Amino acid sequence: MAKICVVAENKAKVKAFKVDRDNKADLLVFVVDKDIKAKGDALWCMEEKDNKATSTTAWVSSENKAQLKVFFVDRENKAKWNKPHNLQNQL
């Protein structure tokens, strides 16, 4: 379950970078509108408070600083890991 709260970089569990193409991403993400729909790592429900989140993320400005490269997809069935990653099952 991926309930994500965006926080400051120094408080984040994961530093992420938004890439401009799906083939550059580690993870293809679809944002769901209810926390009950957040399943696995690729279906994200955005939380405003970190105490409700399963993970905290900071968006970094440089791909080199990122632990995770993310691309947002327009359909739930496109959301998935593009390749094996050390953050699998940790969001």
Keywords:
91 residues, 6-stranded parallel β-barrel, 7 strands, 35% strand
Draw up the topology in text.
Elements: E1 2-6, E2 14-18, E3 27-31, E4 43-47, E5 55-59, E6 68-72, E7 80-81
Parallel strand pairs: 1-4, 1-5, 2-5, 2-6, 3-4, 3-6
Antiparallel strand pairs: 3-7
Overview of this protein structure:
By secondary structure, the chain is mainly beta. It has one domain (2-81). Helix content is 0%, strand content 35%. A 6-stranded parallel beta barrel has the order 1-4-3-6-2-5. The termini are close together.
Summarize this, please?
The chain has no helices and seven strands. It has 91 residues and is mostly beta strands.
Q: Into how many domains do the coordinates divide? A: 1
Helix content: under 10%
User: What's the number of extended β-strand segments?
Assistant: 7
Encode the helix/strand succession as letters. Answer: EEEEEEE
Structural class designation: mainly beta
How many strands, what sense, and barrel or not for the largest sheet? 6 strands, parallel, barrel
Note the gap between the termini.
7 Å
Task: Categorize the overall geometry.
Answer: globular
Rg: 12 Å
Q: Low-confidence stretches at least 5 residues in length (pLDDT < 50)?
A: none
The total count of helices amounts to 0
| Overall mean pLDDT | 94
Strand order of the largest sheet: 1-4-3-6-2-5
